[in-house]
Amino acid sequence: MSLRDDARELQGELAVLRRALHREPEIGLHLPRTQEKVLAALDGLPLEIGTGTSLSSVTAVLRGGGEPGGPVVLLRGDMDGLPVTERTGAEFTSRIDGAMHACGHDLHTAGLVGAARLLAARRESLAGDVVFMFQPGEEGWDGAGHMVEEGVLAAAGRPVDAAYGLHVSSSSYPTGVFSSRPGTLMAASAGLRVRVVGAGGHGSRPHAALDPVPAACEMVTALQTMVTRRFDVFDPVVVTVGTFHAGTRRNVIPDDAVFEATVRTFTPAAAERAAEVAVRLCEGIAAAHGLTAEVDFVPEYPVTVNHVAEHDFLADTVREVFGEERFEPLADPITGSEDFSRVLDRVPGAFVFLGADTTGDPETAPGNHSPLAAFDDSVVSDGSALLAELAVRRLDRLGRPTKETV
Ligand SMILES: [Zn+2]
Fold it and tell me: Measured in angstroms, how far is the CA atom of residue 132 from the centroid of ligand 1?
C-alpha cells in the first residue's frame, strides 16, 4: 500500500488525538498535558525520545535501515494554543477558559504523530534517520529558537540535512490544497514598546503639566508616515499599534502613555532600518514636546525563507502524491511570521500551508487566531502523508550515491 493509503487508515485515530488536544489547549513554552498526550501517542514506536529542559518539547529520532551515518531529515509540528476564548461551538470545544487552539497547532501535532507512525512502519527501508520536532511556544515564545539551542538539529548525532514543516489555515485556501512559494514566504516580526514620560496635572491646566497623550498620538500616526516615506514600496513594511494605554480619568493628565506595535518586514535591510528609524522618530517627537520616550525595539522572528530547490521538491511531491490540483503556487509572501524560520535559517528546507476551511468559502471564513476559527481535521492524514513522503524521498536522494561520487 502507498504511504498515502496507509495515512488514510490512520485518519480516524489522528482526528481523535487532534480533538483531545483541542479540548485542552496550553499556551507558551510549558505544555505538560500536551507533552503527555504526544508521549502516549508515540509510545511503542521504535523511537529515541528526548524531552526539553527549558520547554516541554518532545524530540523523537527514528533510525533508518541504511548505513550508519546516513542523511538526516527533520519534520516539525508546533503544539501551542492561544489566549483566545473559543466561540466555534464545536463538539470538542476548548474546556480551558481563555485558551484555544485558534491557529490549528493541534492539527500539526496530530499530523506529526501520524508521520512518525507511517515512517516507523517503513523504518528498514529508510535511507537515513528522521528527527520529529514537537515544539511548544510558536506563538511569540520562540520555542523553535529554544529547541535549536537545546540541540534539536543534532538530535540524530549528526547535523540535519533538510527540514520541513506545514501550517493549516482555516481560511484563504480551499480545503486540502497545499500552497507555498520559493524564497521569501513569511515576514520577520519585531515588537516596538514606547513609554512617553511627561508630568501629570489637572486636565484644565495643561500648560502647567507635560501631557504625554498628544505626543504619543503623534507617534502612532508618524509611524504610518514612516512606513510610506522611509521604505521602498517594493520592500514592504507593516506597523500596527495594537495597544495604547494612558490615564485614569478624563480630567486628569497622566504622567505617562504607553503603546506597543508589531513591525513586519521581509528583508534584513528593512528590519534593521525599521529598528533605527522607529526609535529615532519616537524619541524625536518626545523631545520636540519637551518629553522623554523610553523606546524598546525587540526583534522577534526572522524572515521565513523557503530554499528554492526544497520548495520545488515539495511542490513536485504534492503534485505527484495528491494530484496537480492539490498544489497552488502562492503569489505573494504573507505578513504573518513563524519561528520555523530559526530552522530554515540553518538548514535547507521548506514550509507549506494546507487549507482546512470548514465553511466551503475560504475567502470569508474566520481566519487563524479568530475565536471562530474552525479547522477541518480531515486534512490531518494528508499532512502526515506529505511530511512522511518528503522524508522518504529526501533521504533516498541524499543517501543514494550520485554519479559524481561513484
Ligand atoms: Zn500558527
Answer: 18
C-alpha cell at 316: 513536485
- Measured between alpha carbons, how far is 228 from 233 in angstroms, rounded to an integer? 7
Residues of the chain with pLDDT under 70: 400-406
Q: How far is CA 70 from the centre of its chain?
A: 29
Q: Rounded to the nearest whole angstrom, what is the distance from the C-alpha of residue 139 to the centroid of ligand 1?
A: 7
**pLDDT for residue 235:** 96
Beta-carbon contacts of residue 161 (< 8 Å; ≥ 6 apart) = 71, 72, 73, 128, 347, 348, 394, 398
The three-state secondary structure class of 106 is helix
Between the CA of 144 and the centroid of ligand 1 the distance, in Å, is 13
Task: Give the Å distance between the CA of 105 and the centre of ligand 1.
Answer: 6
The confidence score (pLDDT) of residue 68 equals 83
Q: Alpha-carbon distance 349 to 39, whole Å?
A: 26
Q: How far apart are alpha carbons 262 and 188 in whole angstroms?
A: 10
Beta carbons of 76 and 343 less than 8 angstroms apart: yes
Q: How far is the CA of 162 from the centre of ligand 1 (A)?
A: 21
What is the distance in A from the centroid of ligand 1 to the CA of 103?
A: 5
**Structural domains of the chain sorted by starting position, each given as residue range(s) with its CATH number in brackets:** 3-186+303-405 (3.40.630.10), 188-299 (3.30.70.360)
Neighbour order of strands in the sheet with 292-299: 237-246, 256-265, 188-197, 292-299
